[in-house]
Design a protein that fits this description.
212 residues; alpha/beta; elongated; disordered N terminus; membrane; transmembrane
Length: 212
Amino acid sequence: EQPVLEPVLPAPAEEQNSTDSAKAPKVNCEERNTTGIDRFTLQILNVSQDLMEFLNPNSSDCTLVLFYTPWCRFSASLAPHFNSLPRAFPTLRFLALDASQHSSLSTRFGTVAVPNILLFQGAKPMARFNHTDRTLETLKDFIFNQTGIEAKSDVAVTEEDWEGPLPSVLTKGIDWLLLFSVLFLAGFVLYATIRTESIRWLIPGQEHEHQE
């Protein structure tokens, strides 16, 4: 006689619990009062403004912060989609800052590449957007999965979003920090090569003089 294998079905209670836990928000955000606000847009910090001044450590409200650079083509392609997010989530706050002008913040929050998006609750980073497909839909899914807040369905990327406030056109510029690092490294290697005693063996005639 051949044994009969019967499939084991999960209990309905366990299945329901797993579904509820998957849908539970990871960050409980305090939604801001939108009464009296006519225009929902993001704010771009200048070089003299500190991010921590805009984040309240004693509050549980949530802020989505974008680290970008104006000469990064990935930041430029993300710009119109990020510009439309405040209209999709009016109860959340959205900030953007030039990572090259706020290098200390980039180091503090581990921003080694741009664009980089962090979700803050109060002044504490809670989640990082890691998708390579940076569109309005993937950003809305990220916010919903983290906070449980649903986006407005009638929001789409418009021509105004391509114009600003976050620039979608590349700006020519020089990364002075990178240039200084390359020049310093090249100078150090040249100095170390000249000072190294073993370099004499590479110069014609030095080996014969040593043998004599």
